Amino acid sequence: YVTNCSACHNQNPAVDGAVGPAVKGSNFELLKARIVNGTYPPGYTPKRTSQIMTRLPLTAGPTAPSTAGF
């Protein structure tokens, strides 16, 4: 999280970042959809309407659950 996400989302995942919203409490399915595919799970309403988040599929490997737990 600190390496790949905090520049946009904030080092504290409970606080909104300059570009991205707070991610604390986001479930694994949401994080995986956003990080790997650049999409949202069906029926999810985004916190922000921008489409600027970069896909980072390499971060969705074995450490993905730890990112969700951060």
UniProtKB/TrEMBL annotation:
Family matches, as InterPro entries: Cyt_c-like_dom_sf
GO molecular function annotations of the record: electron transfer activity; heme binding
Tree of life domain: Bacteria
Protein name, as recorded: Cytochrome C
